[in-house]
UniProtKB/TrEMBL annotation:
It comes from the Bacteria. Keywords: 2Fe-2S, Iron, Iron-sulfur, Metal-binding, Oxidoreductase. PROSITE patterns: RIESKE. Residues 46-151 form the Rieske domain. Coiled coil: none annotated. Its cofactor is Fe cation. InterPro entries: Rieske_2Fe-2S, Rieske_2Fe-2S_sf, Ring_hydroxy_dOase_asu_C_dom, Rng_hydr_dOase-A. It comes from Phyllobacterium brassicacearum. GO terms for molecular function: 2 iron, 2 sulfur cluster binding; iron ion binding; oxidoreductase activity. This is (Fe-S)-binding protein. Pfam families: Rieske, Ring_hydroxyl_A.
């Protein structure tokens, strides 16, 4: 029987070749998954939810990341709080997965009771000398950037999240995502490593062959292309597209809507990219015919022609359009499974069947999410095969993957691997 000695994670990181996908075991090994959780999900800022998940005082929702469980809630003063879902008595979970409405947090075990501020207000049988003030629920660092909630579980959270805040508060302001509602939500468990989920999302090389619904409104050229592999006609079309892109970016900027690409993708702790993408065809929204799905536009928007404000983080992607937004987060569950949670947001006062049709709103991204899930599963399955070796990224359309894998290796090293 062969006795294979496994390489250390450091050795696997050393084996990574610039411009190539990662060595197989970085995608498939459970010890790497544990290290990834620790580094990228418990020590970096991650997008976990939305202010509109918890619109009213008393609304609470639970998010689990490995063995860590967090409660996102809105307190009586309408402030967002994020606390650990661990009772300060003997550690019981307070809330189960999912969303609920509460006036206090009562531990099901021995009824220790916490206010929505996290303070312990009732702890029976603990004696009159018991000091409740040092038994509040543990708070978690969080930021709401334009209504998108990021948390960081590190004692020393990376400060370069400030750059996302600086750039995105202004870009997101007219959409007022804080005053939206979740019209629909889908959880998909992809059969693949979380890095494959993120790599898949960072390119549109696969789009024309796999996303017929998305391609009506999405211009994959924006994600890069090789001019030499295009026919003269397609090349001309690409040139026209880029001239139009430059022109639209100028007009949008002149109208007060920041649109240029801003990214922080290497030599940084917090990874993000934003740009305002053109929507093809009717130009309004990511729907089957590229027209708006909701007649009630978001926030103070009066125009539907402002393209797709796109924002990536290392566990998220968001598309914000005049009439609705689609946000997705990825949470690793094991080396080979990843939760992808997608939400469709509309104006909080938009009424289903009156202002929007739910099928029209969700059609494109339900299909795209399923197609991407298939692709990630195929990719993970092939990577587990001994025949896999890291392959070359296209320098035209997969540059963002090279940035991502390079950042991954850099951050692992910074955390001692
Ligand atoms: O959602 C995204 O950002 C990516 C980019 C291109 C296609 N797609 C699914
Ligand atoms: Fe929560 Fe005992 S563990 S009250
Ligand atoms: Fe895709």
């Amino acid at each position: 029987m062969l006795n294979k000695v496994s390489s250390s994670i450091t050795t696997l990181l050393d084996q990574r070749i610039e411009g190539h996908s990662l060595p197989a075991e970085l995608y498939t090994r459970e010890d790497v998954f544990e290290a990834d959780l620790e580094v990228f999900f418990l020590n970096h800022w991650i997008q976990v939810g939305l202010e509109c998940d918890i619109p009213e005082p008393g609304d609470a929702t639970v998010i689990d990341i490995g063995s860590t469980s967090l409660i996102l809630l809105r307190d009586d003063d309408n402030e967002i709080r994020v606390v650990r879902n661990v009772c300060r008595h003997r550690g019981s979970r307070l809330l189960d997965a999912g969303s609920t409405v509460i006036s206090r947090l009562v531990c099901p075990y021995h009824q220790w009771t916490y206010e929505l501020s996290g303070e312990l207000s009732y702890a029976p049988h603990m004696g009159k000398d018991f000091d409740k003030s040092c038994r509040s629920l543990k708070p978690v660092n969080f930021r709401s950037i334009g209504g998108l909630i990021y948390v960081c579980l590190s004692e020393d959270p990376p400060v370069d999240i400030n750059r996302i805040e600086e750039v995105m508060e202004e870009r997101l302001a007219p959409y007022d995502l804080r005053n939206t509602k979740v019209a629909h939500e889908v959880d998909v468990i992809e059969k693949g490593n979380w890095k494959l989920t993120m790599e898949n999302n960072r390119e549109c090389y696969h789009c024309s062959a796999n996303h017929p619904e998305l391609c009506v409104s999405f211009v994959d050229l924006d994600f890069g292309f090789d001019p030499d592999s295009l026919s003269p006609e397609d090349r001309e079309e690409a040139e026209e597209h880029f001239a139009m892109y430059a022109e639209r970016t100028r007009t949008w900027e002149a109208a007060g809507f920041p649109s240029t690409t801003v990214e922080q993708v290497r030599n940084c702790e917090t990874n993000f990219r934003t740009q305002r993408l053109i929507i093809a065809g009717a130009g309004e929204s990511q729907t089957e015919d590229a027209t708006a799905a909701s007649s009630k536009l978001l926030g103070t928007m009066t125009r539907k022609d402002l393209g797709d404000l796109h924002l990536w983080g290392h566990n998220s992607w968001n598309h914000i359009m005049g009439d609705h937004a689609v946000t997705s987060i990825a949470i690793p569950l094991s080396a080979g499974t990843t939760l992808v949670r997608t939400k469709w947001l509309v104006h909080k006062d938009a009424v289903e069947g009156v202002d929007y049709d739910l099928d029209k709103l969700t059609h494109v991204w339900i299909a795209t999410t399923e197609q991407d899930s298939e692709l990630v599963a195929r990719s993970h399955a092939g990577i587990q095969d001994p025949a896999y070796e890291p392959g070359p990224y296209s320098k035209f359309s997969e540059g963002a993957l090279d940035d991502f894998s390079t950042w991954y290796v850099e951050r692992m090293r910074a955390h001692g691997y």
